[in-house]
Amino acid sequence: MIDKTLNWFDDRLGTAKGGRSFLDKIFPDHWSFMLGEIALYSFIILLGTGVFLTLYYVPSAHEIVYHGSYVPLRGQSVSEAYGSTVDLSFNVRSGLLMRQAHHWAADIFLGAIAVHMARVFFTGAFRKPREFNWIVGVLMLILGILNGFLGYSLPDDLVSGTGIRIAFSIVESIPVVGSYLAFFLFGGNFPGSGVIIPRFYVIHVLIIPAILVGLLAAHLGLLIKQKHTQFPGKGRTEKNVVGSPMFPNFIAKTTGFLFMSFAVIFLLGGFAQINAIWQFGQYQPFQISYAVQPDWYMGWLDGAARIMPAWEWVGWGHTLPLEVFLPAVVFPGLIFTILMVWPFVESIWTKDYEYHNLLDRPRDRPKRTAAGVAMLTLLFGVFFASSTDVMANFFQLPLEDVLWFFRFFVPLAPIVAYFLTCRICNEMRVAEGIGKRKRALIVERSTEGEYTTTEAPGQPGDGHEEIDAVPVPTFIDTSDPSLATAGGVRRVIR
Amino acid sequence: MSDSTPGIDSTPATMDDPHLQPLAKNPKRMEAIAALSMVVGIAGFVAFIIAYWVNASTQWEALTLGIGMAGLGAGTIAWGKYLMPPGPFVEERHDFHSTDDERTAMNAAITGRGGIEVKRRKMLLGIFAVGGGLMTLALLIPGVRSLGPKPAKSEGTQGSTKDSLFTTNWQKGSKLVTVGGRTVKVDDLETGGVLTVFPQGHEGSSPDQVILIRLADLGPNDPPYPLSSPGRTEWGVQGYVAYSKLCTHLGCPVGLYQQVTQQLVCPCHQSIFNVNAGCIPQFGPAPRPLPQLPITVDSTGQMRANGSFDQAVGPGFWERP
Q1: Predicted ipTM?
Q2: Chain A residues with CB-CB distance to B85 below 8 A
Q3: Substitution target from B268, B271, B288 for chain A, most A beta carbons within 10 A
Q4: Which one of A104, A446, B19, B177 is most buried, by most CB atoms within 10 A?
């Protein structure tokens, strides 16, 4: 039956030719290779829960009187966007679960991308021939951040509405064309002609997801075409890949991992309240809340805007709001440009134009590792600067002192981090055996009082990597009945 | 075995091959664990359907769904990791680049065929390029220009607040009203009181929002409250001052008034303005003072604007002089 079906497809598509090598495709085993998978699976959640939300959310700034089940809001005038978001949270069954899972999935999606990217960076996986895929990844990060912002702006609540106001001012700060861009985007001076919610909506649910799906296909297609990188190890060379086959091992493990990621996101969605918009209230341009931070992936931009000195430039009849333009437009532009061009810059810098399929240990590339750590220090610096007010309250310090701390910390800490990392890497390279997986040592005292040290026996799988790797066998001979019952393999192959 | 091209291997692997032995020491036990885990998962999904059916809380839905997914997931992972043939297996990589001959042929096809066409039909190519560019432009013009109105170029331009960053609806004589439309009288606020006000007829409008502060309980015959910004003493009345509530940094409402230090704080990025000194920025990223609205009181005690702002409100932009 299965043979017949497969042949039916092969007659029409020739699937047997490439299909076998696809099933035999080898995935190297390392925990850090699963970080990108988390991003992929949160994206699936985003698409699924997102479709659910579109069925109930109304992308309109039109004012209505709220009559839903949330008592404190009854009789108040709210926008349809806000009212429908409250409604789908309280009146649509499973609505709150889906909405919060959607929000958590977005935060996890971008977190997974960031960590995955750090893994790719620090191990040098972006090197030739994978520069394309690095760029595709950076583009997905940028679009993901943008779509996250658009998404949490849609409920039209007080907190996100303030974010939209800030976005208007940031666009406005661009020299020469800023006010035009802002007016076109919003359909007039802020808050515009009621078009921003529907416009954000179509970008959030259609345009960016469509591009993301395309980039995702390219990302995975390039991965399959170029094959996975691997860490150096026994039998692993630049010319091969050692690990588990796509079918059945990798499929089983990754599907299980998909379910686990889903489980975490839905548990968070049900138990960890996120973006309780009914507590914030409807956005009003003259109202504001205190000690509010954006979602984590926008924090670095908010922090940059906070610590920037008031360097507005005025002259020749024009105003150049550098206090906004530099941290909110130039700074992210610069960061993303550095990320984009890094593979090429590094290759030119090190005069290394070779193929690289074996990964680096971060310590073996002190300068790259140090540059990465400096970048992370910078980004974490501005990220924490986005909660200066919360810190000032928490530590009972004057707000001014906290701000001045970050004004020095953000530019100086990356420099310190760079040299410190270089130093640590170099020392780790010299020291023998650091970072190697150690087996426990058993110290025994004999009756004569003599001490001996022996290695503990291996755990299951410990010695497994010592076996030579072989190509995936096509089929397994189970004709010998004595072997057929061995070790449970037959159950799998059957 | 080293042949990496797919096909039927001449020597099939046998069951005693260590590459095919499951990692689990006791595969039967591991199989039972995986099965149990998946059964827990199935129970979770059934429980979710029941939870939905009886309209249980969001927490119950998440818990049952989470158990379902985690159970199924853990079982599947155990199956894949501990029971399936673990290898290690190897696959050869192939060169990405083509042979030199293929490259030459490809390059020649582009430069040769294309090059000849470019040489022969320069004019056609030029016209084609212009046409293509114009098509893009023609489509972009409505795509961009239809989006919104053009911002007014300068201060003198008349227009609604929707079309201009320079104008507000404040005029000499505008009545100060609350967002609910209630008119503001001179004895409405005590010392230290603040109120967000709008010009009558434009309640809730973003560019028109003004924060009205009573700095001192002064009567009509008392000397005016001494503001340290030169020439502004007459802009307040009976201890009241009024400033644009739009932060000059990024346009958030400057909503925090600290009476003890006489400061207005913007909760967004912590710009601090000195209320006594014409709301000049004392601290933080805001570059300019909050524009002050001159106010007065008419004979009925109604508070009114005594003019408009002397500059554009809100954050900076290119056309601002």
Answers
A1: 0.90
A2: 249, 476, 489, 492-493
A3: B268
A4: A104
